[in-house]
Amino acid sequence: MGLLIDWTTKALCQEGDPDALFVQGAEQNNAKKVCRGCPVRLECLADALDNRIEFGVWGGMTERERRALLRRHADVRSWRAVFEVALEEEQRSARKGNRRRIPVDVNF
Fold first, then answer.
1. How many Å is the Cα radius of gyration of the chain?
2. Quick one: which of 59, 61, 94, 99 could link to 44 by a disulfide (CB 3.0–4.6 Å)?
3. How sure is the predictor about 90, in pLDDT bands with cuts at 50, 70 and 90?
4. Helix 41-50 vs helix 79-95: crossing angle, to nearest 10
């Protein structure tokens, strides 16, 4: 089971005010809280990174955090593919009975 193609209808932020994700300063921390339990957080983040979305909180990251990640990993052409591989490795590990969860660390 990989990332969903049509993820937007499953996003937790669909239940609230969309403008709440396009805030500045300390308010961004509240916006990021919406993303924590979202079942499509990685899909959202991959979409924002792959499409170089400049504004708002996407996948639990602010525009500043996303820009920093893109600078640190300028060679990545598809964040969706990166996250797909990480999820596959996590699932493979779980099938082998390895109880240790491999976190998908988007901060590298």
1. 14
2. 59
3. confident
4. 150
